[in-house]
Specification:
Blueprint (H helix, E strand, L loop, with lengths): L1 H10 L3 E5 L4 H16 L3 E7 L13 E5 L5 H4 L4 H11 L1 H12 L8 E7 L4 H8 L4 E5 L3 H8 L1 H6 L33 H16 L4 E3 L3 H14 L4 E3 L3 H4 L4 H5 L8 H7 L9 E5 L8 H14 L3 E4 L21 H4 L4 E4 L4 H5 L4 E6 L3 H10 L3 E3 L5 H12 L3 E3 L6 H12 L2 H21 L4 H14 L4
Parallel strand pairs: 1-2, 1-4, 2-3, 4-5, 5-6, 6-7, 8-9, 8-11, 9-10, 11-12, 12-13
The structure holds uridine-5'-diphosphate-xylopyranose.
The site of uridine-5'-diphosphate-xylopyranose has 26 residues, from helix 2, helix 12, helix 16, helix 17 and helix 18.
């Protein structure tokens, strides 16, 4: 024991190199993790693509190295998320290797590097780390339950669930209850082979790594974490929710371009005493896109619901439309006719909004960060998943944790109105609210001394200090 403590003491202050997938929902948790590990005494180096790069001046305590991702302008601005991820995994390989090799070389003036921590969706980094004899730990920014479904892709292909057939959408996936075929975490693509390559690569890369970090907590995903522990012969560290350990508003913490519109907070303030918990906050994250027809159904559903709403319409939310014609699709005088009951912004300070006393529900696409943020503020959800893990997250929200309602029958104004009423007015909604407040408490407890995430962070620190590098 003495020796282990001595080794740990000698290795304190070692450098960690972190490499995020350069998308908002992935950069934020990686930077939050960097901050957590920094407070535990590590020096932090971030390798980042030039593409979507955060502003280093927001993180003066980290060292940044930017690498060229070698994407053409059209490749970098594509709507095809899957193609982008596949390209990043090939084009970053050489510059990433060169950058990491320099950081690890004996003539580097910085502290010795203890390990690489990279996003699960960048599995090429596993081979690079192995080549440089550096241990790699994986950060999976999504939930453990959806990861298990990704890990089951070979089985799902073998049993004929994948590729998905439209006639079978409502059928159960009997091997993974309570999922239905429509909940499987795929993305619309003309290239299913690339999808399977990316997913299988992520899972195999995680299996070959020296450990897996999760932005989740035990009380939320215990059965899935247990299964993972059996299937993955490596240490796992469920140590979230990160944003409650290192609090900083999301886009400002990453320094990405999106400007948070603070007007929504003063708009919410006005309702705090007269109509607490009445506002539906509507946001579909940083990537998801909807059609014009869906946009209009959402607008009319909100208008007809009679509830106040705060809606984030991100430029780019509508498929095949640029940012210039932002709200032009709305019927003329739409907001005016509602007499101040609705407020629309391009980007909101989401964590602040969810914590606001006026907010009573979150209509979300169930990106993992949004899902966790909603749970942590005890805000019940209306689920409208768009692709990949969002579908699994939504099923867990509605059917496992039972802290939200899912729009099961498409996006249609009558259905929307009905769902909002069930959540905001009826008894069912009250029970949902009680359940999510209970989960919120568990999330907070997990981070306190002796809580599962608190202990997991300490185990991770010890694990890193004892890695052979
Ligand atoms: C992406 C993937 O689509 C999703 O499947 C995966 O789980 C995570 O990465 P994204 O669209 O980025 O999701 O959503 P989410 O994970 O919810 O992250 C969005 C982040 O942006 C949240 O932290 C949220 O607080 C923030 N946000 C969103 C704002 O700060 N303001 C907004 O107006 C909207």
């Amino acid at each position: 024991k003495q020796t282990i403590e001595m080794i740990m003491h000698q290795r304190r202050g070692r450098r960690l190199v972190l490499f995020p997938l350069p998308l908002q929902g992935h950069i934020n948790p990686m930077l939050q993790l960097a901050n957590i590990l920094h407070t535990h005494g590590f020096s932090i180096t971030i390798i980042h693509t030039n593409f979507n790069s955060p502003n280093p001046s927001n993180h003066p305590h980290f060292t940044f190295h930017f690498i060229p991702e070698n994407l053409s302008e059209s490749e970098a601005s594509t709507d095809d998320l899957l193609a982008l991820v596949a390209l990043l995994n090939t084009r970053c390989e050489e510059p990433f290797h060169d950058c990491l090799a320099k950081l690890c070389s004996s003539d580097s003036e910085e502290e010795p590097v203890a390990c690489l921590i990279s996003d699960a969706i960048l599995p090429f980094t596993q081979a690079v780390a192995e080549k440089l004899k550096l241990p790699r730990i994986v950060l999976r920014t999504g939930g453990a339950s959806s990861f298990l479904v990704f890990a089951a892709f070979p089985l799902l292909r073998e049993r004929g669930y994948l590729p998905i057939q439209d006639s079978k959408l409502e059928e159960p996936v009997v091997e993974i209850p309570p999922l239905k075929v429509k909940d499987l975490p795929v993305i619309n693509t003309s290239d299913p082979q690339t999808l399977h390559q990316v997913v299988d690569g992520m899972v195999d890369g995680a299996k070959a790594s020296s450990g897996l970090i999760w932005n989740t907590f035990e009380d939320l995903e215990q059965p899935s974490l247990d299964t993972l522990g059996q299937k993955f012969p490596i240490p796992i560290f469920p140590m979230g929710p990160f944003h409650k350990i290192f609090t900083a508003s999301s886009s400002s913490s990453s320094g990405l371009l999106k400007q948070e519109d603070q007007s929504c907070i003063s708009w919410l303030d006005k309702l705090a005493t007269t109509a607490p918990k009445s506002v539906i906050y509507v946001s579909f994250g940083s990537i998801a896109a909807i059609s014009e027809a869906e946009f209009l159904e959402i607008a009319w559903g909100l208008a007809n619901s009679n509830q106040p709403f705060l809606w984030v319409v991100r430029p780019g939310l509508l498929t095949r439309r640029g940012g210039s014609d932002w709200l032009e699709l709305l019927p003329s005088g739409f907001l005016e006719k509602l007499g101040g009951r609705g407020h629309i912004v391009k980007w909101a300070p989401q964590q602040e909004v969810l914590a606001h006393p006026s907010v009573g529900a979150f209509w979300t696409h169930n990106g993992w960060n949004s899902t966790l943020e909603s749970i942590c503020e005890g805000v019940p959800m209306i689920c409208m998943p768009c692709f990949t893990d969002q579908r699994v997250n939504a099923r867990y929200v509605s059917d496992v944790w039972r802290v939200g309602l899912q729009l099961e029958n498409g996006i249609e104004r009558g259905e929307i109105e009905k769902t909002i009423r069930r959540l905001m007015v009826e008894r069912e909604g009250k029970e949902i609210r009680e359940r999510i407040l209970c989960l919120k408490e568990k999330a907070i407890l997990s981070l306190k001394e002796g809580g599962s995430s608190y202990e997991s962070i300490n185990s991770l620190v010890t694990h890193i200090l004892l890695l052979e590098s």
